[in-house]
């Protein structure tokens, strides 16, 4: 097959959608497909396995960036003169065979990210913001004008949002959960990295280490973890390791007010997150909104029991009480604290961690790829 992948940045280190597209491109090449990447940004040292096509965009102002990229992609694709079997879009563009929605509706993202949207005035104000207005209009045009042949999204929650906002028929949307590299993220990493990582962050061998991974501390629910930790008996040797970017000063202050300042470690971002998971005991992900939350799947693959909010798409793959616990919404710190008390028992952590690892194997990169290929093949059959 000749496949065109469309993404604004083809840079694996950026994470999120960029890492997803790079992984997919590599898998397609391994299966002997011809891969063309239509992008505005790609590494200076090009990967010769792919054919890169530069898509011009006005990058200095985000509203123009989104629209110029969206408008130019179909033009650049047409200019190649290549008849692609599949054009797979990961960034908003005005035409693609498959449009993958990786972050939910932008409107829902705004509702859960900005407190202002809780008021009518705030909603109007945010909608007048050029960046948000640009994204909302572009999203509306793609869905209302049906500038796709198939939509894929990363959770049932995301699918329901699309159907609710844009009245998209259910048959137009296929849910493909994110995949995880089960070789890279593995319980075996604990033997290699656990001790050295704990020494690096001054975590004692017998401390029960909670893991929080995510940038944007407010939306990811860090305050709920801190509040829950403050409710747990101080005699229990819990510590919290925070990985990611956010208002660190504010959350340090909250931890100090709660009397657990010494128990919370802010470590910034990490390019070796698989080593960080290896040092942990419990993964806590009380996100106020997440279309999926791949970090949760990475933690499960690493053999950690997880505590995840119902407002995260990742909760859809959890068997509550078996491989993790699901927090109801509104998020209740006391509920998190109760789960922490349950998981304080080492044998319980081990039991649920094994179950979490087993569950993650159903959501491997290979499983994700196979489901993606089934969508490709279905569209090709319809073309004939």
Detailed description of the structure:
The structure is a single chain. This protein is an alpha/beta fold. It folds into 2 domains: 2-179 and 365-383, 3-Layer(aba) Sandwich (Rossmann fold), CATH 3.40.50.2000; 189-362, Rossmann fold, CATH 3.40.50.2000. The protein is built from 15 helices and 13 strands. The chain has helices at 16-30, 62-80, 106-113, 120-128, 130-144, 156-166, 189-200, 217-220, 222-231, 248-257, 273-278, 294-301, 333-343, 346-360, 365-383; strands at 2-6, 34-39, 51-54, 86-89, 98-101, 150-153, 173-175, 208-213, 238-243, 264-266, 282-285, 306-309, 324-327. The two termini are 14 Å apart. 43% of the residues are buried. The model has no long low-confidence stretch (mean pLDDT 93).
Entry keywords:
384 residues, alpha/beta, Rossmann fold, seven-stranded parallel β-sheet, six-stranded parallel β-sheet, 15 helices, 13 strands, 15% strand
Topology:
Layout: E1 2-6, H1 16-30, E2 34-39, E3 51-54, H2 62-80, E4 86-89, E5 98-101, H3 106-113, H4 120-128, H5 130-144, E6 150-153, H6 156-166, E7 173-175, H7 189-200, E8 208-213, H8 217-220, H9 222-231, E9 238-243, H10 248-257, E10 264-266, H11 273-278, E11 282-285, H12 294-301, E12 306-309, E13 324-327, H13 333-343, H14 346-360, H15 365-383
Parallel strand pairs: 1-2, 1-4, 2-3, 4-5, 5-6, 6-7, 8-9, 8-11, 9-10, 11-12, 12-13
